[in-house]
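Quick note —
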Amino acid sequence: MPKRDPELWTVRDCAQHLGISESTWRGYVARSDAGAPSPVERIGATPLWDSQAVTAWNESRPGRGGRPKRT
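Predicted structure written out below.
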């Protein structure tokens, strides 16, 4: 079976999916203790994340769901 190509998300995509600000997402990525996934690819200076890795990280992090999603 061929390996799937991951859907790649930008900072904005990750933040929107999680219902947080872009700066909060950048903070999670910068803090090693937050455990956020690292970018899997870059296009120029733009980091990209595997959407499934971001979703899995969010589902497993402690305290998730404490705040309502931003709309």
